[in-house]
Structures are given as structure tokens and as C-alpha cells.
């Protein structure tokens, strides 16, 4: 999987698209997330120190008060756009987006549409981020439904799950488009030629699965994608595909389960090491390897998942994101801009052959 250093190298190795001049400008929702603006500003300062241009959106006096904690902030490529309202994690997504036009994520989306930045990152209410993007930016031509493409780290490499929570109920046309957009995302962002596409199911045989899987399998098999068939849960974790396609309900359950199992494994190891003195000695020897493994499995290494299928680079961060995840999200968004992702996504939608 790409570490922070690999993501930095990916940014350096990608040439700018014809539309982009200079460093990508990443618009960040300063009031998105569970922990308030503090960690968001801290992560953005860290990203700006690496040379990324950041535009913070939120209550200007609060944001500037947070920035004042960093003596070098005034010399960094950081701008602030004022926003008078906030959409909370418990707010009804669509209603809040419509009612709170001055909310930080709405202001961020309008800034992207107006060309003030090149991508938006928010760790706020994911449903609201999607609603705001749809209302403000709209869908790419031909897209039936946007989807969240979430990266799940594996022992060697990663798998991108599409959809990871945007659409609880889907039809086969949706999954076909998800497969094409997910394949393009992996190709452009991770440099994987002909990504392997799998369909999440309860069995590897083509005859297995629910009505949605049974309707989708033959169409993927006939597509121009590198379709490797149905993928069971254990095969997903073993890296048998680069893109795993499913409805958003299934994808979100898989994603949250993977996060929970990862944390459980490390908690069990930590508890075992602390249970005996000689285990603690062994743990001290193993600590560098365990720390390295922890970073591989940490969502903070990626920072955010793209909302694919909308007219702009929009990344959704984990609600519990802290500074490291925020700075990683800025880097990932920067890679997407450099990779000219939106025109590539439009090409993927056309290639899917599915009309809206």
C-alpha cells in the first residue's frame, strides 16, 4: 500500500493537467469531523509545510485563532474563507444542506465550483458532503449515482471498495458504473494497469449471490474490464482483486468490519504483551515491526475516500480524523488533481455503456 512517502512521490511524479497551473489548491472544511477545527487546522498546517496550498473554510475568527498557535502559519500557503454555519454529524443530510447555505461544506463546494480551488476535503457528515456535492457541483454526464471509493489496506497492496456507503440500494446499472469508475480510480491514483475487478458475493461461483449480484455478474463478465469474478470476504482480505464492487450497504458493513477487526487484532496483541514481563521484553523487540504494521492498516495513511461520479474532486474523511489523517487527505486530493481524475472518470462512465 502507498505510505505517506509513496503518496508524496506520486504527487511529484504526476505532470499537471492542462487545466492546472501551479500547485493544486485543496479546499478543506475546517468544521468537518468529530473533534472540531483544532485537528483540521493542525493537519492543514502540516500539509502546507510540505508545500501544499490549503484553503480553510469555516468561522474565520475561530480558524485564525487556531492558526495563531503555529508561529510559521502566516508564511505558509494557507488561505481562509469565512463560513457562518456548521452542519453537524447528527443533522439530516439533505435538509441541513438546503437549510444551511452558509455551512462550511456548502461554502467549500461553491468555492470549488467557482474555481477558487481544485478539490474539496471534508471529514464532516458524509451524507451531507454527498448532498452538498450533488446540489452544488452536479453529476458527471451519464452518472446514475455517485459512489464512495474507500481504500482498505492489505498485507500487500490495497483493495478499493465501491460503493462504501453512498447508496444503500442499487441496481445492476449502478454496479456496472461503480466498477468502471473504481477501475479508473485505481489506475490513475495507484498506477495499476488493468486493475482486477471483483464482485462481492457469498460464493465464488457465478450462480451464487443475491438478485443484485446475479444480475450484475454476467454483465461484468461481458464488459471490457479485467473482471475476475465473484469475491468472498476472505478473498477480499487476501488481495484477490484491486476493486471490489457492491451496493453501499454491503460496502459500508465490510469497511467498518475491516476497521473493527484491525483494531481488535492490535488490542489483543497489546493486551497479550502486557500480560507477562517476558512478553513485554519480546514486545520491545517487536515494537518497530508492530508500529510499521499499524501504519499500514491505519486509515489515516490515506485520509479520505473520493466521491466518484460528481463534477469535481471531492474527498470524504473519516469523522474521527485527527491531524495526520487530515494532512493525508490533503495529499490524496492533491494527487487526484495532478492525475487529472475528473476527465478520466468521465471517460470511464462513457466506457461503461450505461445511460442515466
Write the layout of secondary structure elements.
Layout: H1 4-13, E1 25-29, H2 37-49, E2 53-58, H3 60-67, E3 78-82, H4 93-99, H5 104-113, E4 119-122, H6 126-136, E5 147-153, E6 158-162, H7 172-190, E7 196-200, H8 211-221, E8 226-231, H9 233-237, E9 243-245, H10 248-274, H11 277-296, E10 304-308, E11 313-317, H12 323-338, H13 341-352
Parallel strand pairs: 1-2, 1-4, 2-3, 4-11, 6-9, 7-8, 7-9
Antiparallel strand pairs: 5-6, 5-10, 10-11
Helix pairs in contact: 1-12, 2-3, 2-12, 4-6, 5-6, 7-8, 7-13, 10-11
Written overview of the protein:
With 356 residues, the chain is α/β, with parallel strands linked by helices. The chain has a domain at 20-143 and 309-339: 3-Layer(aba) Sandwich (Isopropylmalate Dehydrogenase), CATH 3.40.718.10. The protein is built from 13 helices and 11 strands. It has helices spanning 4-13, 37-49, 60-67, 93-99, 104-113, 126-136, 172-190, 211-221, 233-237, 248-274, 277-296, 323-338, 341-352; strands spanning 25-29, 53-58, 78-82, 119-122, 147-153, 158-162, 196-200, 226-231, 243-245, 304-308, 313-317. The protein has an 11-stranded mixed β-sheet with strand order 3-2-1-4-11-10-5-6-9-7-8, with helices on both faces. The longest helix is centred in the last third of the chain and has 27 residues, at 248-274. The radius of gyration is 20 Å and the shape is globular. The two termini are 34 Å apart.
